[in-house]
Amino acid sequence: MTTRHFLTLLDLSPQELKTLVQRAIELKRMQRAGEIYEPFKNRVMSMIFEKSSTRTRVSFEAGMAQFGGHAMFLSPRDTQLGRGEPVADSARVISSMVDIVMIRTFSHELVQEFAANSSVPVINALTDDYHPCQLLADMQAFAEHRGDITGCTVTWIGDGNNMCNSYINAARQFGFKLNIACPEGFEPDAALVEANADRVTVMRDPVAAVKNSSLVVTDVWASMGQEEEQKQREAAFASYQVNEALLDKAADDVIFMHCLPAHRGEEISETLLDDPRSVAFDEAENRLHAQKALIEFLLTQ
Ligand code: CP
Ligand code: NVA
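^ thats the input. predicted complex w/ norvaline below
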């Protein structure tokens, strides 16, 4: 049997993703009802973080604890990975001792190389190119607030970054239409757009992009690793802020998501996260439930 990994949304079939989102909703109900569910006693997850995190670390660590297992935080400052031990060697060693591995890093190729040399499932917890775990939480939040997303129009506003690339994969796997409004020079992966041209449209005008949209999403203008481009990006994205007035141009029942952390006054207005149309904090909580569903899926293959 081959080991299943979760490096992008394309690693699971549309049906598997759909089932996983429903399972996440059930795990959330169980957690809120105080039901103890510990199917993974003595199972261990290694969490390798080369970039900062609040939600990802807390959700994976809490999720493993709730499952009766354990999560181990590894930083490159303290491991031999940070001193240049080859990724393949690290993968062989770490995966020989734990049951599942989560990695947040810069290079997507590093995660692919780790997975290729790992004997246990590997989860991509964000690379420069993709953030698939966030999409599980987002799809769960949409299902909870609005039901089936199939056939809906979704709009991404802002940088064509790791989250935007993952929304393109989600458009394919969950069957929705995706409008992307971004400034010239900040488009998502060109090959990915091309491969999904039947459902993805890159535009310049945010107002045109949100028309008839059931979901509007944005993210920071400068991602982790792009801090020195902050000023230049603020200028380039100045007309791409998502605010209440822009949401007014979308469908009447539109909801707004942001993976967080957010910069109020930049990519969103100061007050948008308090608007009744924002579900960003439900979305954040869902990281816990959706990733528990993912861990359960990968550990029971
Ligand atoms: N959305 C998200 O991945 O948040 P963290 O960077 O806090 O993990
Ligand atoms: N695009 C952001 C997402 C953070 C969760 C980043 O990569 O920094």
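The chain is about 40% helix and 15% strand.
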